[in-house]
Specification:
single chain; about 210 residues; alpha/beta; Rossmann fold; 5 strands; binds CO-5-methoxybenzimidazolylcobamide
Protein backbone atom coordinates (compact mmCIF):
# COMPACT_ATOMS: atom_id res chain seq x y z
CA UNK A 1 0.00 0.00 0.00
CA UNK A 2 1.34 3.45 -0.84
CA UNK A 3 2.03 5.86 2.00
CA UNK A 4 -0.77 8.16 0.79
CA UNK A 5 -3.18 5.24 0.89
CA UNK A 6 -2.03 4.38 4.38
CA UNK A 7 -2.58 7.97 5.53
CA UNK A 8 -6.08 7.88 4.06
CA UNK A 9 -6.85 4.52 5.74
CA UNK A 10 -5.57 5.57 9.17
CA UNK A 11 -7.48 8.85 8.90
CA UNK A 12 -10.69 6.95 8.19
CA UNK A 13 -10.02 4.81 11.27
CA UNK A 14 -9.42 7.96 13.32
CA UNK A 15 -5.89 6.93 14.26
CA UNK A 16 -4.45 10.39 14.79
CA UNK A 17 -1.05 9.25 16.06
CA UNK A 18 -0.46 7.03 13.01
CA UNK A 19 -1.64 9.76 10.65
CA UNK A 20 0.73 12.26 12.25
CA UNK A 21 3.68 9.85 12.02
CA UNK A 22 2.97 8.91 8.42
CA UNK A 23 2.55 12.50 7.30
CA UNK A 24 5.95 13.26 8.83
CA UNK A 25 7.41 10.16 7.16
CA UNK A 26 6.03 11.20 3.77
CA UNK A 27 7.59 14.64 4.20
CA UNK A 28 10.91 13.08 5.25
CA UNK A 29 10.80 10.98 2.08
CA UNK A 30 10.55 14.16 0.04
CA UNK A 31 6.86 14.13 -0.84
CA UNK A 32 5.38 17.60 -1.22
CA UNK A 33 2.90 18.92 1.35
CA UNK A 34 0.15 19.64 -1.20
CA UNK A 35 0.17 16.03 -2.46
CA UNK A 36 0.03 14.68 1.11
CA UNK A 37 -2.85 17.03 1.91
CA UNK A 38 -4.88 16.33 -1.21
CA UNK A 39 -4.17 12.67 -1.96
CA UNK A 40 -3.74 11.42 1.61
CA UNK A 41 -5.67 13.50 4.14
CA UNK A 42 -8.46 15.04 2.03
CA UNK A 43 -8.96 11.82 0.09
CA UNK A 44 -9.54 9.96 3.40
CA UNK A 45 -11.87 12.69 4.66
CA UNK A 46 -13.90 12.52 1.42
CA UNK A 47 -14.41 8.78 1.86
CA UNK A 48 -15.60 9.37 5.43
CA UNK A 49 -17.90 12.11 4.13
CA UNK A 50 -19.49 9.73 1.63
CA UNK A 51 -19.95 7.05 4.29
CA UNK A 52 -21.47 9.64 6.65
CA UNK A 53 -23.91 10.63 3.92
CA UNK A 54 -24.90 7.01 3.36
CA UNK A 55 -25.29 6.32 7.10
CA UNK A 56 -22.41 3.85 7.02
CA UNK A 57 -20.60 5.81 9.75
CA UNK A 58 -21.97 8.20 12.38
CA UNK A 59 -20.95 11.44 14.15
CA UNK A 60 -18.43 9.85 16.60
CA UNK A 61 -16.49 8.16 13.79
CA UNK A 62 -16.52 11.37 11.75
CA UNK A 63 -15.33 13.31 14.76
CA UNK A 64 -12.35 11.06 15.42
CA UNK A 65 -11.51 11.09 11.69
CA UNK A 66 -11.64 14.89 11.84
CA UNK A 67 -9.24 14.85 14.79
CA UNK A 68 -6.88 12.65 12.80
CA UNK A 69 -7.18 15.05 9.86
CA UNK A 70 -6.28 17.97 12.12
CA UNK A 71 -3.31 16.01 13.54
CA UNK A 72 -2.05 15.52 9.98
CA UNK A 73 -2.57 19.10 8.88
CA UNK A 74 -0.76 20.35 12.00
CA UNK A 75 2.38 18.59 10.72
CA UNK A 76 1.95 20.23 7.31
CA UNK A 77 1.16 23.66 8.73
CA UNK A 78 4.71 25.03 8.93
CA UNK A 79 5.30 24.04 5.32
CA UNK A 80 2.00 25.23 3.90
CA UNK A 81 2.37 28.49 5.79
CA UNK A 82 6.08 29.08 5.24
CA UNK A 83 6.46 31.97 2.92
CA UNK A 84 8.74 34.01 5.15
CA UNK A 85 6.90 37.09 3.94
CA UNK A 86 5.94 39.67 6.57
CA UNK A 87 2.23 40.28 7.12
CA UNK A 88 0.72 42.03 4.12
CA UNK A 89 -2.72 42.49 5.64
CA UNK A 90 -5.23 41.23 8.16
CA UNK A 91 -8.12 38.83 7.75
CA UNK A 92 -10.91 38.12 10.24
CA UNK A 93 -11.81 34.45 9.77
CA UNK A 94 -14.42 32.20 11.31
CA UNK A 95 -17.08 29.55 10.85
CA UNK A 96 -20.51 31.14 11.04
CA UNK A 97 -22.96 30.95 13.92
CA UNK A 98 -24.55 27.54 14.43
CA UNK A 99 -21.81 25.74 12.52
CA UNK A 100 -19.06 23.71 14.17
CA UNK A 101 -17.17 22.52 11.09
CA UNK A 102 -13.64 23.87 11.18
CA UNK A 103 -11.39 21.71 9.05
CA UNK A 104 -11.91 23.75 5.87
CA UNK A 105 -11.62 27.00 7.82
CA UNK A 106 -8.33 25.83 9.31
CA UNK A 107 -7.03 25.08 5.83
CA UNK A 108 -8.05 28.54 4.70
CA UNK A 109 -6.12 30.01 7.65
CA UNK A 110 -2.99 27.99 6.84
CA UNK A 111 -3.06 28.98 3.17
CA UNK A 112 -3.67 32.63 3.97
CA UNK A 113 -0.81 32.63 6.47
CA UNK A 114 1.27 31.09 3.71
CA UNK A 115 0.54 34.19 1.64
CA UNK A 116 1.85 36.41 4.42
CA UNK A 117 -1.55 37.49 5.73
CA UNK A 118 -2.20 37.87 9.43
CA UNK A 119 -5.28 35.82 10.26
CA UNK A 120 -7.40 36.53 13.32
CA UNK A 121 -9.21 33.22 13.70
CA UNK A 122 -12.43 33.62 15.69
CA UNK A 123 -13.08 29.88 15.69
CA UNK A 124 -16.45 28.22 15.11
CA UNK A 125 -20.06 29.21 15.85
CA UNK A 126 -19.20 32.89 15.43
CA UNK A 127 -22.09 35.39 15.59
CA UNK A 128 -22.24 38.13 12.93
CA UNK A 129 -21.60 40.89 15.49
CA UNK A 130 -18.31 39.26 16.53
CA UNK A 131 -17.00 39.31 12.94
CA UNK A 132 -17.89 42.99 12.65
CA UNK A 133 -16.45 44.02 16.04
CA UNK A 134 -13.19 42.20 15.28
CA UNK A 135 -12.92 43.83 11.83
CA UNK A 136 -13.37 47.27 13.42
CA UNK A 137 -10.99 46.64 16.32
CA UNK A 138 -8.31 45.11 14.14
CA UNK A 139 -8.82 47.50 11.24
CA UNK A 140 -9.00 44.48 8.91
CA UNK A 141 -10.06 44.88 5.29
CA UNK A 142 -11.29 41.30 4.94
CA UNK A 143 -13.92 39.25 6.72
CA UNK A 144 -13.77 35.60 5.64
CA UNK A 145 -16.60 33.25 6.58
CA UNK A 146 -16.91 29.51 6.25
CA UNK A 147 -20.15 27.46 6.40
CA UNK A 148 -20.65 23.75 5.82
CA UNK A 149 -24.37 23.46 6.46
CA UNK A 150 -27.18 24.60 4.21
CA UNK A 151 -28.92 25.69 7.42
CA UNK A 152 -26.08 28.04 8.47
CA UNK A 153 -25.31 29.60 5.08
CA UNK A 154 -27.97 32.23 5.71
CA UNK A 155 -25.80 33.58 8.55
CA UNK A 156 -23.53 34.95 5.83
CA UNK A 157 -26.30 37.29 4.69
CA UNK A 158 -26.62 38.37 8.30
CA UNK A 159 -22.92 39.24 8.34
CA UNK A 160 -23.32 41.39 5.21
CA UNK A 161 -26.33 43.15 6.74
CA UNK A 162 -24.61 43.66 10.11
CA UNK A 163 -21.61 45.22 8.34
CA UNK A 164 -24.01 47.64 6.63
CA UNK A 165 -25.71 48.53 9.91
CA UNK A 166 -22.33 49.12 11.55
CA UNK A 167 -21.37 51.47 8.72
CA UNK A 168 -18.31 49.46 7.65
CA UNK A 169 -19.70 47.69 4.57
CA UNK A 170 -17.69 49.83 2.14
CA UNK A 171 -14.49 49.32 4.14
CA UNK A 172 -14.47 45.51 4.18
CA UNK A 173 -14.36 42.79 1.58
CA UNK A 174 -16.60 39.92 2.64
CA UNK A 175 -15.33 36.56 1.42
CA UNK A 176 -17.39 33.40 1.74
CA UNK A 177 -16.85 29.70 1.14
CA UNK A 178 -17.62 26.16 2.25
CA UNK A 179 -19.11 23.12 0.54
CA UNK A 180 -22.73 24.33 0.09
CA UNK A 181 -21.76 27.90 -0.88
CA UNK A 182 -21.79 29.00 -4.53
CA UNK A 183 -21.03 32.05 -6.65
CA UNK A 184 -24.76 32.55 -7.22
CA UNK A 185 -25.38 32.50 -3.47
CA UNK A 186 -22.55 34.98 -2.96
CA UNK A 187 -24.12 37.42 -5.41
CA UNK A 188 -27.60 36.90 -3.98
CA UNK A 189 -26.57 37.95 -0.46
CA UNK A 190 -24.37 40.83 -1.58
CA UNK A 191 -21.06 39.34 -0.39
CA UNK A 192 -17.94 40.18 -2.39
CA UNK A 193 -15.90 37.08 -3.14
CA UNK A 194 -16.73 33.37 -3.31
CA UNK A 195 -13.93 30.86 -3.68
CA UNK A 196 -14.28 27.09 -3.84
CA UNK A 197 -11.13 26.06 -2.00
CA UNK A 198 -8.61 27.25 0.53
CA UNK A 199 -5.83 27.97 -1.95
CA UNK A 200 -8.11 30.15 -4.11
CA UNK A 201 -9.33 31.93 -0.97
CA UNK A 202 -5.76 32.81 -0.02
CA UNK A 203 -4.99 34.04 -3.55
CA UNK A 204 -8.11 36.20 -3.54
CA UNK A 205 -7.37 37.63 -0.07
CA UNK A 206 -3.80 38.49 -1.03
CA UNK A 207 -5.23 40.09 -4.20
CA UNK A 208 -7.50 42.37 -2.14
CA UNK A 209 -4.52 43.79 -0.22
CA UNK A 210 -2.38 44.02 -3.35
CA UNK A 211 -5.06 46.08 -5.08
CA UNK A 212 -5.45 48.48 -2.13
CO1 LIG B 1 -20.87 17.41 9.43
N1 LIG B 1 -22.02 17.59 7.85
N2 LIG B 1 -22.45 17.62 10.56
N3 LIG B 1 -19.66 17.03 10.86
N4 LIG B 1 -19.63 16.88 8.14
C1 LIG B 1 -21.36 17.63 6.54
C2 LIG B 1 -20.99 19.06 6.14
C3 LIG B 1 -22.46 16.98 5.59
C4 LIG B 1 -22.35 17.44 4.12
C5 LIG B 1 -22.38 15.44 5.71
C6 LIG B 1 -23.39 14.74 4.86
O1 LIG B 1 -24.54 14.63 5.20
N5 LIG B 1 -22.98 14.29 3.72
C7 LIG B 1 -23.75 17.45 6.28
C8 LIG B 1 -24.32 18.78 5.82
C9 LIG B 1 -25.56 18.62 4.99
C10 LIG B 1 -26.10 19.93 4.56
O2 LIG B 1 -26.19 20.89 5.27
N6 LIG B 1 -26.46 19.96 3.29
C11 LIG B 1 -23.31 17.48 7.72
C12 LIG B 1 -24.21 17.42 8.83
C13 LIG B 1 -25.68 17.19 8.51
C14 LIG B 1 -23.76 17.54 10.17
C15 LIG B 1 -24.61 17.51 11.45
C16 LIG B 1 -25.94 18.27 11.38
C17 LIG B 1 -24.82 16.01 11.78
C18 LIG B 1 -25.69 15.71 12.98
O3 LIG B 1 -25.40 16.12 14.07
N7 LIG B 1 -26.75 15.00 12.69
C19 LIG B 1 -23.66 18.12 12.50
C20 LIG B 1 -23.78 19.64 12.59
C21 LIG B 1 -22.97 20.22 13.69
C22 LIG B 1 -22.88 21.74 13.58
O4 LIG B 1 -22.05 22.25 12.87
N8 LIG B 1 -23.75 22.45 14.27
C23 LIG B 1 -22.34 17.73 11.91
C24 LIG B 1 -21.22 17.47 12.68
C25 LIG B 1 -19.99 17.10 12.17
C26 LIG B 1 -18.80 16.70 13.05
C27 LIG B 1 -18.70 17.53 14.34
C28 LIG B 1 -18.97 15.25 13.39
C29 LIG B 1 -17.61 16.87 12.05
C30 LIG B 1 -16.93 18.27 12.10
C31 LIG B 1 -15.62 18.23 12.86
C32 LIG B 1 -14.80 19.48 12.59
O5 LIG B 1 -14.94 20.19 11.61
N9 LIG B 1 -13.91 19.72 13.54
C33 LIG B 1 -18.32 16.77 10.70
C34 LIG B 1 -17.66 16.52 9.48
C35 LIG B 1 -16.18 16.24 9.57
C36 LIG B 1 -18.34 16.52 8.23
C37 LIG B 1 -17.82 16.07 6.85
C38 LIG B 1 -17.79 14.55 6.86
C39 LIG B 1 -16.46 16.58 6.41
C40 LIG B 1 -16.32 18.09 6.42
C41 LIG B 1 -14.88 18.44 6.19
O6 LIG B 1 -14.17 18.77 7.13
N10 LIG B 1 -14.40 18.28 4.94
C42 LIG B 1 -18.93 16.65 5.88
C43 LIG B 1 -19.17 15.83 4.63
C44 LIG B 1 -18.29 16.28 3.49
O7 LIG B 1 -17.94 17.42 3.36
N11 LIG B 1 -18.00 15.37 2.61
C45 LIG B 1 -20.04 16.95 6.80
C46 LIG B 1 -12.99 18.53 4.60
C47 LIG B 1 -12.78 20.05 4.46
C48 LIG B 1 -11.35 20.31 4.04
O8 LIG B 1 -13.65 20.50 3.46
O9 LIG B 1 -14.82 22.16 4.99
O10 LIG B 1 -15.67 21.72 2.63
P1 LIG B 1 -14.54 21.82 3.58
O11 LIG B 1 -13.55 22.95 3.09
C49 LIG B 1 -13.16 23.04 1.73
C50 LIG B 1 -14.04 24.00 0.90
O12 LIG B 1 -15.40 23.95 1.27
C51 LIG B 1 -13.37 25.31 1.07
O13 LIG B 1 -11.99 25.01 1.29
C52 LIG B 1 -11.80 23.67 1.71
C53 LIG B 1 -10.94 22.96 0.67
O14 LIG B 1 -9.77 23.60 0.38
N12 LIG B 1 -13.76 26.24 2.13
C54 LIG B 1 -13.63 27.58 1.91
C55 LIG B 1 -14.21 26.05 3.39
N13 LIG B 1 -14.39 27.20 3.99
C56 LIG B 1 -14.04 28.18 3.12
C57 LIG B 1 -14.02 29.57 3.23
C58 LIG B 1 -13.60 30.32 2.13
C59 LIG B 1 -13.23 29.70 0.94
C60 LIG B 1 -13.22 28.33 0.81
O15 LIG B 1 -13.55 31.69 2.12
C61 LIG B 1 -13.72 32.39 3.30
Amino acid sequence: MSILNEISQYLQQGRAKNVKELVQKALDEGMDAKTILEEGLLSGMNIIGEKFKNNEVYVPEVLIAARAMNAGTEVLKPILASSGVKAVGKVILGTVKGDLHDIGKNLVRMMMEGKGLEVIDLGVDVPAEKFITAAKEEDAKIIACSALLTTTMSEMKNIVETAKEAGIRDDVTIMIGGAPVTETFCKSIGADIYTADAASASDAAAGVYKAS
